Amino acid sequence: MNVIIIEDEKPAARRLSRLLGELGVDVSTMLHSVEEAVNWFQQNEQPDLIFLDIQLSDGLSFEIFDLVEVQSAIIFTTAYDEYALQAFKLNSIDYLLKP
What we know:
CATH superfamily: Response regulator
Largest sheet: 5 strands, parallel
Order of helices and strands: EHEHEEEHEHE
Radius of gyration: 12 Å
Strand content: 25-35%
Structural class: alpha/beta
CATH architecture: 3-Layer(aba) Sandwich
Helix content: 25-40%
Strand order of the largest sheet: 2-1-3-6-7
Number of domains: 1
CATH class: Alpha Beta
Number of strands: 7
CATH topology: Rossmann fold
């Protein structure tokens, strides 16, 4: 399974990657901004699953979907509950709230 993490807080991204690794899920790529994610999607095949934070350093992750077509399953990982409805209009399969 090809899994990527898009999270601007690098310690949080590393922790999520480590937790997934303990479950036998290898994370192939970690991205940290809308711009970096858009560039990555333009140059790579779609991953099977994306763990995606909503507020990134250069904007909301929803901007990614305005610029590239993303067909992957998405699990949003965020501290903001007010974006849940908007998230489920995408390919979201879950919405995890950070403590």
